[in-house]
Automatic annotation (TrEMBL), chain A:
GO BP terms, alphabetized: Arp2/3 complex-mediated actin nucleation
SMART domains: WD40
Gene Ontology MF terms in the entry: actin filament binding
Major localization listed first in the record, in broad terms: cytoplasm
Keyword Repeat set for record: yes
Protein species of origin: Sinocyclocheilus rhinocerous
Chain segments annotated as coiled-coil in the UniProt record: none
Official protein name in the record: Actin-related protein 2/3 complex subunit
TrEMBL record, chain B:
Superkingdom field: Eukaryota
Entry annotated with the keyword 4Fe-4S: no
BP-aspect Gene Ontology terms: Arp2/3 complex-mediated actin nucleation; regulation of actin filament polymerization
Family per similarity comment: Belongs to the ARPC5 family.
Alphabetized UniProt keyword annotations: Actin-binding, Cytoplasm, Cytoskeleton
InterPro entries: ARPC5, ARPC5_sf
Physiological role: Functions as component of the Arp2/3 complex which is involved in regulation of actin polymerization and together with an activating nucleation-promoting factor (NPF) mediates the formation of branched actin networks. Arp2/3 complex plays a critical role in the control of cell morphogenesis via the modulation of cell polarity development.
Pfam hit, one: P16-Arc
GO CC entries: Arp2/3 protein complex
UniProt protein name: Actin-related protein 2/3 complex subunit 5
One of the record's GO molecular function terms: actin binding
Compartment(s) of residence: Cytoplasm, Cytoskeleton
Amino acid sequence: MSYHSFLLEPISCHAWNKDRTQIALCPNNHEVHIYKKDGNNWSKIHVLKEHNGQVTGIDWAPESNRIVTCGTDRNAYVWTLKGDVWKPTLVILRINRAARCVKWSPKENKFAVGSGSRLISVCYFEQDNDWWVCKHIKKPIRSTILCLDWHPNNVLLAAGSCDFKCRIFSAYIKEVEEKPAPTAWGSKMPFGEVMFESTGTSGWVHGVCFSDSGNRVAWASHDSTVAVAEGGKTAVCASLTSETLPLLCVTFITENSLVAAGHDCYPVLFVYDSNKAALSFGGKLDVPKQSAQKGMTARERFQNLDKKATTDSKEAVLESVHKNSISQISILNGGKAQCAKFCTTGMDGGMAIWDVKSLESAMKDLKIV
Amino acid sequence: MAKNTLSSRFRKVDIDEFDENKFVDDHDEPADQQGPDAVEVDNLIRQGDMMAALHIALRNPPINSRNPAIKERAQAVVLRVLTSFKSSDIEPTVKSLNKNGVDLLMMYIYKGFERPTENSSAILLQWHEKAFAVGGLGSIVRVMTARKTV
């Protein structure tokens, strides 16, 4: 487990390249900085300046090596590496509010952008015009789309929104792909069709993730709950309320285990049991430093009682690795089926890389199924 | 000063009501939620069975109801039960509630904070401390983010 502090400002969003030697991140301003791993250090090799507003989403396509970024200036750019320089191509999203999140599809021939205009723009490249074109998914979205994730079949798209719902849409574009085969979420998938809509949880949906097979979708919402739905004849939903602050991002690390992180500044493991359709808390994944317990003198005790009305000697310092909310989590190795390493970035400007095997051995009761 | 000769009625118009994209919550059927049975709760309080009184008081919460009278009545019943508790009994009773019960109790506690009476805030704060120990920050977040409250 390693932690590197990039900046003092929050990291708005990040994305890794294919071999995980470079990371693109937004230092809470209009630019995207690309850092390259240099032994134990990180050196800034590129600065991408084109956006006029804060960059809210970055995604790096591993195979085609293109970066897509979206920002509060209502634009998205697709960046391609020409020689040693990243060249941007503007994509007209036709939205009149900020873009909030962007994701390449698994085959990298499309990407989806969620925005505050209450719609999702699905963009694909039109060869004839040499231009990125977009189609909108509007109904029945009633508020900002906060997060997106693609199903492995390249057609279905899960979207979490501020209207308290997690939905799965079909983003089938006939110009770039064949008709998809039936999935657990349904067989007829015309563009914009709602394959699944969540009920039951309230609160803005901050993070959404498909499992590796695509048969399960998990989402974290602002009422401090995590929920998992499994596709089938009737979608089965399981949710878990937690005693912690809301979680902001969630990802599957195996077909049955999820890791989520948020305002409590440490990642948490959840385990889904499909036989009982139940979600349970697996454990806190942070490794706290063993703080030496000093003995308190009577004077200190009295001072504590006077100042803080308590004899507790606990310092008001966070013991977790991240010192502020974790806003994004990404898988480094192993994919969503057998994740070996994942990375978290947050509002403290730092990035932590977590090793699943060493976490499992460090926490006695942790079991990752 | 010159008298305001132009009408200022426009200042009282709620412009958000006319927004065509205004978000309206899904209207769930107000299932037959009459709130807890006041008579039964009274009996249990008189008998001294406080834990059962609270459990009954937390049944049938008027969450989906849009009738303010029902909500007022439910709030009054629950507040009566909460104030009749002995301080030492609060902790075991809170431990006997399930997760939903704790969340519901938190909702009633915060509702009670909204209209403080002579002694209610102190007692509610005691309840809040014990409910927080069990429900954590999550239960408070759920009260704050709930669209349909008690």
